Every structure is written in C-alpha cells, then in structure tokens.
Amino acid sequence: LAPTHVFRCERNCKERTPPRSPPFFGMGHSERYPEHVKYDGEWIFNNAGGAMGAMTLLHASFSEYVIIFGTAVGTEGHTGRFFADDYFTILYGEQWAQSPTDALHKEVYRAGDQHHLPWLYAKQYRMPDSCWALEYARGNIPSMLPFGLLDTFSSTVDLYTLYRTFVLSGKGMIGHLLKGKI
Q1: Residue 134 three-state SS
Q2: Are 5 and 32 in contact (CB under 8 A)?
Q3: Which one, of 60, 105, 52, 108, lies nearest residue 84 by Cα?
Q4: Portion of the chain with pLDDT greater than 90, in percent
Q5: pLDDT, tens digit (0-9, with 9 covering 90-100), for 47-88
Q6: How far is CA 4 from CA 7, 9, 29, 44, 84, in A?
Q7: What is the pLDDT of residue 97?
Q8: In Å, what is the CA distance from 33 to each residue of 29, 101, 113, 115, 147?
Q9: pLDDT tens for each residue of 120-154
Q10: Which tens digits make up the pLDDT trace of 83-111?
Q11: Euclidean distance between CA atoms 122 and 81, whole angstroms
C-alpha cells in the first residue's frame, strides 16, 4: 500500500456529511488493492491511550494496517509511540492535537487533512465531536498491539473486544504472511 495514494484518495473523496456506512471508504482502495484491502462489515470498540472509539479493520499484515476509526460522541487520549509511521486522514469531523514540543499550540485537522505521526513520536489528541478517519500505519505493526490492547486489562475488561481484535488482526496478519506479504 502507498501512503501517498491513501492520502490522495481520501483528500479527493472526503465526506461532507456524517458517514452512514463504510462505503465512504470505497474510494478506490479495495479496487486498487483487492488482495489486501477488504471490508467485512464488522465494527468493534477500540480503547487505546485513554481514548475510546469504534473501528473496522480493512487490512492487517506484519508491516501495515488500515482501519477506519472514529466516534459519534467525541474522545480524547494519547496517540501512542510506535516503531511505525502512522497516517491519520480525517474523513469527517475534526481532530485536535498537541505536540509535547509545542504545548501551547493546538493543531487542527479537518476532513481531507492528514495527521502524520513519524516513528517514535507521540501527541495528545482529541476528537471533540463526531469524527471519522482512515488510519494507515506502516512499520513494525506487532509492536503497536500492546498499546491497542492494554486498556482492556487496565480499565475496560472488555474481553469480547479483545478476542475480536486478536481474531481479526491475527487472521489478516497470518493470511497475508501466507501470501508472501510481511
């Protein structure tokens, strides 16, 4: 997958109204990468870094993942610090961020904007209201899993979501590994 294609596609096809269903992602990705990007209709909660939202997994391998993540009610938390580049393209709504190196300045990302977090860089973020984004990460994806799962043990104890996250991620990662994609 190519970050520039993801950004170009989402920027050119951003939603101006709240998404009603994931076809708002159907902007050329599944057609361009039919062996890798698929929407199966399943949405699960995601609790990570103190923030809560819903996500659907579109692609998972050991080197990349693509999800749609968002919330209808707003959320706030820590982005995480990863051995991966993370590209967060806003489809609908607004995301705010604060960098530790510029704590007095609020970054604002709107529909069509892409918030890029390079390797090992973290921020505070907030989605003040309904906000949906396409998230593409590239790098050491297994190193990101603890961040995405530890809130289950420290606060939510949502074992069903933990189970579904493992099943969906594992199925994608192993499936792509068997196809020769790391």
Answers
A1: strand
A2: yes
A3: 60
A4: 69
A5: 999 999 999 999 999 999 999 999 999 999 999 999 999 999
A6: 5, 8, 12, 27, 16
A7: 98
A8: 6, 37, 22, 23, 27
A9: 999 999 999 999 998 999 999 999 999 999 999 99
A10: 999 999 898 899 999 999 998 999 999 98
A11: 5
**Dihedral of the alpha carbons of 30, 34, 39, 44, in degrees to the nearest 10:** -110
Q: Can you give the length of the chain in residues?
A: 182
Q: Cα 116 vs. chain centroid, distance in angstroms?
A: 12
- Of 83, 34, 86, 60, the C-alpha closest to 181 is 60
Please spell the DSSP secondary structure of 140-178, one letter per residue.
Answer: -GGGGHHHHHHHIIIII--HHHHHHHHHHHHHHHHHHHH
- The count of C-alpha atoms lying within 13 angstroms of the C-alpha of 173, restricted to the half-sphere facing its C-beta, is 14
Asked if 59 and 1 touch (Cβ cutoff 8 Å), the reply is yes
Residues 153 and 158: their CA atoms lie apart, in Å, by 8
Strand pairing category for 114-117 and 44-48: unpaired
Distance CA 115, CA 95 (A): 9
